[in-house]
Amino acid sequence: MKQRQKHYSFDLVLAMTLFCVFTVVALLLVGIGSRVYASCGEKLQTDYQLRTALSYLAGKTRYESVCLTETRPLENTEAIVLTERTESGDYETWIYFYDGALCEQYIPAGGAVDPAAAAALIRLEDFSFTLSEDGRTLDLTVRAAGRSRSLTLCVNRFAEVTP
């Protein structure tokens, strides 16, 4: 009878050991999965920021009433200036990087620009652009969370551009 009791205690110890190993492995998998999920969420958020910024800029430059796209200095930065003709006169949209965000101001042509009064569109780490020498293409680069995206746009398709 004593031998049978030892056999049951060995089975119990083996079953408890297997249960503990299963529990530890399950907890490790849950921990790893949560880190992967958080990382994917951060990457999706960053991709969203980058795509949104570039899509917004592409949409703005392609707007049919925009007759001229140029770059101008603005305090400690450069700005993309989109001039559009409306029935009530010419207006300018100034797009620039200020205080960690892509910003925009819509003012009458020749009006004063106040960078601090602009509408912040989306938070970014960096925003840079280059207008080609002939004034026909605009290269955009945005960066967020250490990742960057670039886009080249055709601008001033119908305007007379003088370099």
Which features does this protein show?
five-stranded antiparallel beta sheet, alpha+beta, 39% strand, 8 strands, 163 residues
> What number of structural domains do the residues give?
1
Number of strands: 8
Quickly count the helices. Answer: 1
* Beta-strand share of residues: 35-45%
Helix content: 25-40%
Mean pLDDT: 87
Q: Separation of termini?
A: 103 Å
General shape: rod-shaped
Strand order of the largest sheet: 1-2-3-4-5
What structural category arises from helix and sheet content?
A: alpha+beta
Which consecutive residue ranges, at least 5 long each, have pLDDT under 50?
none
Biggest sheet character: 5 strands, antiparallel
The Rg value, from CA coordinates, equals: 29 Å
Q: Spell the H/E element sequence.
A: HEEEEEEEE
In short:
Helices cover 37% and strands 39% of the residues. With 163 residues, the chain is of the alpha+beta class.
Q: Secondary-structure blueprint of this entry?
A:
Layout: H1 2-62, E1 66-74, E2 77-86, E3 89-98, E4 101-108, E5 119-123, E6 126-131, E7 137-144, E8 147-154
Antiparallel strand pairs: 1-2, 2-3, 3-4, 4-5, 6-7, 7-8
Describe the structure.
The protein is 37% helix and 39% strand. It has 1 helix and 8 strands. The protein has a 5-stranded antiparallel sheet, covered by helices on one side. The protein has a 3-stranded antiparallel sheet with strand order 6-7-8, with helices on one face. The chain is α+β, with helices and mostly antiparallel strands and 163 residues long. It is rod-shaped. The chain has one domain (1-163). The chain starts with a helix and ends in a 9-residue tail after the last strand.
